Amino acid sequence: MAHDASQPQQRLARVGKATTEKPAARWALIAISLLFLLLMLFLPLTAVFVEAFRKGLFAFIKALGDPETFSAIRLTLIVAGIAVPLNLVFGIAAAWAIAKFEFKGKAFLTTLIDLPFSVSPVISGLVFVLLFGSHSVLGPFLQSYGIKILFAVPGLVLATVFVTFPFVARELIPLMQEQGTADEEAALSLGASGWQTFWYVTLPNIKWGLLYGVLLCNARAMGEFGAVSVVSGHIRGQTNTMPLQVEILYNEYNFVAAFAVATLLALLALVTLVLKTLLEMRYSAEIAASRRH
Amino acid sequence: MNTQTRKAWRIRQPSVIPGFGLALGVTLFWLVLVILIPLSGLLIRSSALGAANFWALATDPRTLNALRVSFGTAFAAALVNVIFGIVLAWVLVRYSFPGKRIIDAMVDLPFALPTAVAGIALTTLYAPNGWIGQWLTPLGIKVAFTPVGITIALIFIGLPFVVRTVQPIMEEIDREVEEAAATLGATRFQTISRVLLPGLTPAVLTGFALAFARGVGEYGSVIFIAGNLPYVSEIAPLLIVIRLEEFNYPAATAIAAVMLLISFMMLLVINLIQSWSRRRYGYGA
């Protein structure tokens, strides 16, 4: 057995061989994975761009220049521009309370925050129709004051906030739990006020995680379809967001225009993925998501 | 003594960190306003229907069929995702090959791509005259506008859930366990099937449950490819929308309540799996 111990290189190689698959099996598994992804992910993504340019660049540009499409883009930006900051403030507050303190009912609160993830998007829209619709308790009251929530921007924002509710909080809670409270305690003991501690100590610690959460929240806010579809009322040029505009154009067999708007959304998704990957690569220690999806 | 007992009755443990009241206040206000009031509105409206009425609406044949389609296709898709998700996670964790980083990033595409875009893209591929559909039609295989098409859309939507729950657990596997199995004479196949896969069970179950739950509620990516034939390829979320457009609020409410109830049960099951796995294996999924 002496020759075994004298050649650690060979022994390592043999251990390596025993704990991995044969090259043929390895390449087969890689091939299966790549084929599956090609079929399920790459092909649909390619189809979006190919179909958008099917009738040439001119038709593509013309489709995007349509005033209704333009107003859909504007509305999507408005809705996301309101919903994302609201959930950003909520996410920071929730993470501060949950990660920095020990209190009763914390686990239950965390479960409640995750709730929207397990609700169908259609139901997320339906709850607001039931709350504010003309058949509801609040409906006639709002109507008498001329307040429009359904089939208008407030309804779209509410549905979007509902659907994107957990994103920022879910990213920040594990991150801030991991960081603990030692930094804040040090700052406080040196005489910093509560807000100073937050601005100069906590926020720099969580900025990349925060950006990560906002990125995912924004992607979902701009791309949400089901919830928004239920509360929108599909008034052309007024309450159609980009995903809804895609649906309308597609159902009218205006495929080039539908896919043209879809390319913008697909680009948004790709930019989100690239930024997300960059954050995971460069700041993996400062975001929680790389360890917990 | 006195402070001890008082401490036990406190809602929160003392801390020098300020802002608990403000942070918890903002959190609860927003949670109650945006999530809890609307959701309880749905429950109140459905309980106002009365038990008999609710039961009649929930067991309407079209409703039952839609629920069956939703749950059946979501189950099939989650099953496919478990198989390919495990393979994919294994390949991403253990092997190196050119373009691996891009592949890894692309797995999250279904999270980032708006569902409506996924829906029209998949329909373009699988329609009878589509990119892939045109090769399947002569073989007599119909994908788009059938439950098979719905399943394909749900596979797309659910894939990252399985990969992203299994992948981190696979990364944590201790190589020494495999080395021990190999030393004791296990073949590679035995090591994987008897030693590695059992340890992954909680993660796989969690991934399955997440993909399944997401698939049941999915709307945007499905409605384009489904064809939406009542009793055949009509999903439950779509039936809610149809009932709403008919101003049939009681029916929409009843279907939503049934779906919500099942989703909450799934959430409970996921939590149970996770606490079970934490007890049994020492890590959560």
Automatic annotation (TrEMBL), chain A:
What PROSITE patterns does this protein map onto? Answer: ABC_TM1
Q: Source taxonomy lineage?
A: Bacteria, Pseudomonadati, Pseudomonadota, Alphaproteobacteria, Hyphomicrobiales
Q: How does it assemble?
A: The complex is composed of two ATP-binding proteins (CysA), two transmembrane proteins (CysT and CysW) and a solute-binding protein (CysP).
**Keyword set includes Transmembrane:** yes
Sorted keywords for this record are: Cell inner membrane, Cell membrane, Membrane, Sulfate transport, Transmembrane, Transmembrane helix, Transport
A single GO molecular function term of this UniProt record: ABC-type sulfate transporter activity
Span-the-membrane segments of this chain are 27-50, 71-99, 119-142, 149-169, 253-275
Superkingdom of the source species: Bacteria
Q: Which Pfam families match?
A: BPD_transp_1
GO cellular component, alphabetical, reads: plasma membrane
Q: How does the protein's chain sit in the membrane according to the entry?
A: Multi-pass membrane protein
- What task does this protein carry out? Part of the ABC transporter complex CysAWTP (TC 3.A.1.6.1) involved in sulfate/thiosulfate import. Probably responsible for the translocation of the substrate across the membrane.
Q: Does the keyword Transmembrane apply?
A: yes
Q: Where is the ABC transmembrane type-1 domain?
A: 73-276
Where does this chain mainly localize? membrane
What is the designated name of this protein? Sulfate transport system permease protein CysW
NCBIfam families in the record: 3a0106s02, permease_CysW
Compartment annotation: Cell inner membrane
Gene from which this protein is expressed: cysW
InterPro entries found in the cross-reference section = CysW_permease, MetI-like, MetI-like_sf, Sulph_transpt2
Automatic annotation (TrEMBL), chain B:
Q: Subcellular location, in the record's words?
A: Cell membrane
Q: Which gene encodes it?
A: cysT
Q: Which family does it belong to?
A: Belongs to the binding-protein-dependent transport system permease family. CysTW subfamily.
Q: Which UniProt keywords apply?
A: Membrane, Sulfate transport, Transmembrane, Transmembrane helix, Transport
Task: Tell me what this protein is called.
Answer: Sulfate transport system permease protein CysT
Broad class of where this protein is predominantly found:
membrane
Under Gene Ontology molecular function, one entry of this record is: ABC-type sulfate transporter activity
**InterPro entries listed in its UniProt record:** CysT_permease, MetI-like, MetI-like_sf, Sulph_transpt2
Lineage, uppermost ranks? Bacteria, Pseudomonadati, Pseudomonadota, Alphaproteobacteria, Hyphomicrobiales
Quaternary context: The complex is composed of two ATP-binding proteins (CysA), two transmembrane proteins (CysT and CysW) and a solute-binding protein (CysP).
What region holds the ABC transmembrane type-1 domain?
67-270
By its UniProt entry, which CDD domains does this protein fall under? Answer: TM_PBP2
Q: Report one GO cellular component.
A: plasma membrane
Function comment = Part of the ABC transporter complex (TC 3.A.1.6.1) involved in sulfate/thiosulfate import.
| Natural source organism | Metarhizobium album
Q: What kind of membrane protein is this, topologically? A: Multi-pass membrane protein
- Transmembrane stretches in the record are 20-44, 71-93, 105-127, 139-163, 195-213, 254-273
Which Pfam family is an annotated match for this chain, by its short name?
BPD_transp_1
Gene3D superfamilies from the xrefs? Answer: MetI-like
